[in-house]
Specification:
By secondary structure, the chain is an all-beta fold. The radius of gyration is 14 Å and the shape is globular.
Length: 119
């Protein structure tokens, strides 16, 4: 069973920066795609950024140029560097790990970390 532990959330003024971290247990991190999702109050959870096992990245349009996802396989950790934060970035941010297996993907979620951007 994989456990994902997020950290780094908090309260920040608009225009500020935060770095989220997510550390995974187990030995499948390096072959996994890692994703960051967020859920704002009253809204559906949405994918913010993804990084493949090979290091390719994708972002949702609203965070392009402001957020950067990266990974450190030696530390089993994925990061989300968030800059130029806006109030609409407020929400609970979740880490997600997708492990490829012979029968499909196994998906694990972290507990979430709150990010609040004040105007």
């Amino acid at each position: 069973q994989v456990q994902l532990v997020e950290s780094g959330g908090g309260l920040v003024p608009a225009g500020g920066s935060l770095r989220l971290s997510c550390t995974a247990s187990g030995n499948s991190f390096s072959i996994s795609a890692m994703n960051w999702y967020r859920q704002a109050p009253g809204k559906q959870r949405e994918m913010v950024a993804t990084i493949t096992s090979g290091g390719s990245t994708k972002y949702t349009d609203s965070v392009k140029g402001r957020f950067t996802i990266s990974r450190d396989n030696a530390k089993n950790t994925v990061y989300l560097q968030m800059s130029s934060l806006k109030p609409e970035d407020t929400g609970v941010y979740y880490c997600n790990q997708m492990i490829p297996t012979s029968i499909g993907l196994r998906v694990y979620w972290g507990q979430g970390t709150q990010v609040t951007v004040s105007s």
